[in-house]
Write a structure and sequence with these properties.
mainly beta; Immunoglobulin-like; four-stranded antiparallel β-sheet; three-stranded antiparallel β-sheet; 1 helix; about 5% helix
Length: about 120
């Protein structure tokens, strides 16, 4: 059995973006029905219920919405776990868009009327 776990897109993500977490299983021979859990920070956030397969494949998609916490951390990692034995099958990391610092400058003056060129004011 060959299992791949991917995320698309996996970089340049901003808060509110959606990434597809994909599982692809290819079976030569026979496999039994199983469930694979998706964990984020040790908590199950989704699952793939995989039927029994005979010389076949299974593809599953789980949609994940990027949070502000993910952006603040710079990335988020997901772990794929075989629920039948608790073993880690694979993990993927999605990377946030690099946030550039911003600065805002505002000016005010007094008085705001009756000013002519050459006048000085505060």
């Amino acid at each position: 059995m060959d299992i791949s776990f991917t995320g698309e897109p996996n970089s340049g993500l901003a808060c509110g973006d959606t990434s597809s977490l994909n599982i692809n299983i290819n079976v030569t021979g026979t496999s039994e029905e199983n469930r694979y859990d998706i964990l984020k920070d040790g908590t199950v956030i989704g699952s793939y219920n995989v039927p029994s397969l005979v010389d076949d494949s299974f593809t599953g998609v789980f949609e994940y919405e990027v949070t502000q916490e993910d952006i603040d951390n710079g990335s988020v990692t997901f772990t794929l776990v075989d629920s039948s034995n608790g073993e880690t099958v694979d993990s993927i990391t999605l990377y946030a868009e690099e946030a550039l610092p911003e600065i805002s400058v505002a000016f005010s003056a007094s008085p705001t009327s009756g000013i002519t060129i050459g006048d000085y004011f505060e």
